[in-house]
Design goal:
With 344 residues, the protein is mainly β. Helices cover 8% and strands 29% of the residues. Among the domains are: 116 residues, Immunoglobulin-like, CATH 2.60.40; 113 residues, Immunoglobulin-like (Sandwich), CATH 2.60.40. The protein is built from 2 helices and 22 strands. The strands form 6 sheets. Strands 7-2-1-10-11 form a 5-stranded antiparallel β-sheet, with no helix packed on it.
Length: 344
């Protein structure tokens, strides 16, 4: 301890004497460090400042900071296989924008847990379909885009996506300004599978119509005759159109007030134009039976009622028939049966 005190005392005395003698003092800087010592040697070889020492003497703001870039994460926007597809959109719809979804499968699909979004990469922006919403096999179902649901509208340059209950992308469409102008839509040709293009004629809830094309001849269903006292009972449909009538995914019921009683037509039933086809209520074609006072209704794949007839106290051995025959606007009357032929 005594030695430390003596060193401090004589060191302080020496500094005081130097100050009194007027000796010149220079500020130590990186530049002065290159000056030579009393023995002629250089503090820093070749007069070049030592970088480590220089960096330590420089202000912190001049120190170089190195950062590593984070790679951008891009969401996978490749749809997985699904029977559902976006078939048509109208970004300038009146009164509301709308999109059309098609079910090209053979089963009804419950959309309650599916979601829709115009920001596919943001899971927080996905909106569930209303509870209980279903889409039938072969159906083209239209959804209006409003602030109430799904909470957004379609822009002139936009994208629209649908996700299954697992959160997997199953349908995606993107369009640019001008693809869906006022009075036109943006849809697939051919339906459900083809590429999108601007369509001159929007076709909500129906098959898309290509520009300048002549639509193929269509079948026209006419419920033409009923027989309620047979073994078995039967009903007759007449195709009044110029094209084939495909009854795939059509349904029929004798209880129109209860949708749960609708039964599908037998598979592969197609009626050529201007032709009659009879359906037996024998458990093969349909399982229900008619009463003397009854009703029959037929529905298209979208669930729309396309034909209906009611009768009361139909006499045994008689049928209830259209007059004039095959005329969808004709009246009904009691006649002799004319199964598979023109009504009397």
């Amino acid at each position: 301890m005594r030695r430390l005190f003596l060193c401090f005392f004589f060191g302080t005395l020496l500094i005081h004497q130097l100050n009194c003698s007027g000796a010149k003092h220079e500020e130590v800087t990186p530049e002065t460090l290159t000056e030579q010592t009393t023995d002629g040697s250089s503090i820093i070889p070749d007069g070049q400042p030592d970088q480590t020492l220089a960096d330590n003497l420089l202000p912190e703001s001049t120190a170089e900071t190195k950062t590593e870039s984070t790679p951008e994460v891009v969401a996978d926007l490749t749809p997985v296989a699904s029977d559902l597809t976006i078939n048509e959109i109208n970004a300038k719809g009146e009164p509301n924008d709308w999109c059309e979804i098609s079910n090209r499968g053979s089963q009804v699909i419950d959309l309650s847990e599916y979601t829709i979004s115009d920001e596919p990469t943001n899971p927080q922006k996905r909106t569930k379909f209303p509870a209980g919403t279903t889409i039938k096999a072969g159906e083209y179902k239209v959804f209006e885009m409003t602030d109430a649901w799904p909470g957004f509208k379609l822009g002139s340059e936009e994208e629209l996506a649908i996700f299954n209950p697992k959160g997997e992308l199953i349908a995606l469409v993107k369009w640019k300004d001008g693809d869906s102008p006022t009075g036109k839509s943006f849809g697939r040709i051919p339906d459900a599978t083809g590429p999108f293009k601007t369509l001159d004629t929007p076709t909500p809830a129906a098959t898309n119509k290509d520009n300048g094309s002549t639509p193929p001849p269509q079948g026209k269903l006419v419920l033409n005759e009923i027989f309620a006292s047979g073994t078995p009972d039967w009903f007759e449909i007449y195709n009044a159109g110029d094209g084939e009538l495909d009854l795939t995914n059509y349904t029929a019921t004798d209880t129109p007030t209860d949708p749960a009683t609708r039964l599908a037509f037998p598979t592969a039933k197609k009626i050529p134009p201007k032709t009659y086809m009879v359906f037996q209520l024998d458990g093969n074609d349909f399982a229900f039976k008619f009463g003397s006072s009854e009703a029959l209704a037929i529905y298209d794949p979208q669930g729309n009622e396309v034909a209906k007839v009611e009768w009361k106290e139909l006499p045994s051995g008689k049928s209830y028939s259209r007059s004039p025959n095959g005329d969808p606007s004709g009246t009904w009357k009691t006649t002799d049966p004319s199964q598979g032929q023109a009504n009397p």
